[in-house]
Amino acid sequence: MNQYIVTALVSNKSGVLTRISGLFSRRGYNINSLQVCATENPEFSRMTLVAGADDSTIKQITRQLDKLVDVKKVGLLNPSQAVCRELLIIKLKMHPSNRPEIESTCNIYKAKMIDLSPTSLIVELTGEPNKIDAFIGVVSHYGIIELVRTGLTALERGESGF
Amino acid sequence: MKETSNGKGRMLRGAEIIVETLIEQGVTHVFGYPGGYIIDTFDALYLYRDKIKQILTSHEQGACHAADGYARATGKAGVVMSTSGPGATNLVTGIATANMDSVPLVAITGNVPLTSLGRDSFQEVDITGVTMPITKHNFIVKDVRELAPTLRQAFEIAISGRPGPVLVDVPKNVQQAVAEYVPASPVQKRVEPLKIDEQAREAAQILSQAKKPLIYAGGGVIISNACEKLREFAEKFGAPVASSMMGLGAMPANHPLFLGMLGMHGSAAVAKALGECDAVIAIGARFSDRVAGNPKSFCKNAKIIHIDIDSAEVDKIVNSHAHIIGDALQALYWLTENAKPHPNSEWQQRCAELKKQYPFIDSKMPLCPRKLLRALAELSPADRIVTTDVGQHQMWTAQSYSVSLPRTFLTSGGLGTMGFGLGAAIGAAVATRKPVTMITGDGSFHMNMNELPTCVKNGLEVKIFVFNNNVLGMVRQWQTLFYHKHYSSTILDSPTDYVKLAEAFGATGLTLDKNEDVESVVKTAFETRGTVVVDCKIMPDEFVLPMIPAGKSAEHIITEIKEENA
Fold first, then answer.
1. Which of A139, B427, B477, B521 would staple B66 via disulfide (CB 3.0–4.6 Å)?
2. What interface predicted TM-score (ipTM) does this complex get?
3. Digit-coded pLDDT (tens) for B80-106
């Protein structure tokens, strides 16, 4: 089983996400993450989907997606030829004595502190998922109050548009 | 979409726009059932009654199967209309049936006004949500100006590529709102030119090298009007043709190269040939589990060429060695031109021998289902449409009723919908204005016999042959073979008197219980005007053979039942 990045241009209409997620659950495909938002053209949304599948299943996934009327274009991204990013927002417990240490960890990961209370802080980090995983691992011992990740979003490198 | 008008439209109510658009798209009949949230559109149908005919059924399910039968018989999209809530949910089985068999269907449902939507209003149901997995696409129209374009798009989606059902949900206030209607010409099926790539060339290569080619023809051959080309192709390459149930009629049953149906209840000759061939050319077929019970062992020794318009079918179940994604007719044209036939008279002879060696065996009971089916086929003109329900009678019909023309054998293949046949017969009879034969079982017939009055009041010549064995024969057969003869809920023993039943509905009833009377009763049924129900009394322990048990491959074929089982 491999992780595949599926990218698709879909109609920016209500119900489209239901059609796509319905297709996945109906046919028993696994979604690891799904990220969708409107594009520069208000008619379309771009969807980035990470799915765990074997070779023949991923072929089925893209072909089944392609059949949906609301899916305009669909393809697989090769991670080595794509820019892949994920956003993490994480709320950590903080003892005032820990703050310099947390700050320096954030600097190493180029994470940004974006909120502060006497006993907690919120950090924002963008990067590839493995960097996010590593960061979470490093800061977890401070105590994670809650966190949110966007899931992977990606674009193909180079001048050609999808 | 090309507008034919100079832009000067007329201001019409949404309901009238729906009906105008249907007429503009060439729709002649709407099958349906009225109700509170579609009443406006039925009002418009009344106004336009000289241009478009309503066929009122007893139940929305019957209407949906009728629209489906209309579409299967003609190749044009069938149209069904119902109200919201229960009217809409009653369409669900019919829509799913059409979806599984790639039938172009446009279902129009009313819904509660937009202001009431999402409030659990009376007769409200989220029918686009319900039908999402069983339609090719669906719409809810919230703006009356979108109504005509959406309906046109629905027709285009329904008939293009791999056809399928499309549902358009129209809230009541949208049916009442007024907008400009500008007529347009009927939408055309989108046809993509065939792409000739490496895979196509590989397919031609495999075909050119094949010494023992076998064609596996599916319903796609009929849908793409490729039947004549298929025959030419088969003759050129000396390739015997096996067909899926949906593909019956693509090749005339009496053609020397036609080998029979393949799959769970296919002919044993086909099962043998599949094991011996060196190339399978699957055309417009999807290797369903009723065909390839065990996909891993399906034609292990043969190269597989898969031609399908739906790319998702390629390598879905069985991996192909080469594929052509596109229209079957175009693909057959290209392959005929670009592959070289190999002399293979020995192989053709071998298949002809197999066909002789493995005929379907008649039962020795007083009334043999196969004898009756052969008589029905022989006493009918070649273009007579026959519809079936689902179960043993369906398999016997697929095996023993010689189908000679495409679009004359209408049956629920993928979904296996008991109760499909009568609605389908109504649709086919309405479309062709010719007599239609319906083969059913007593189980299936009891499901939707409520459509008998629809046949009678519309003066339809539907000749219904009820294979009455007092049991649910197909399930009983499985119980006999695999469930220790535990006849759980399969003994019907319904006291139905079919002759009286027919008469009560205004039809004619006949009884048939022995082989000697087959010809005379069939002739009487065909000669009697109007709808006829024939109670064909067969025995409960007739089996459908041969049979490849579910999940097994062709070598596990059961060709006879031993005494202790029967």
1. B427
2. 0.90
3. 999 999 999 999 999 999 999 999 999
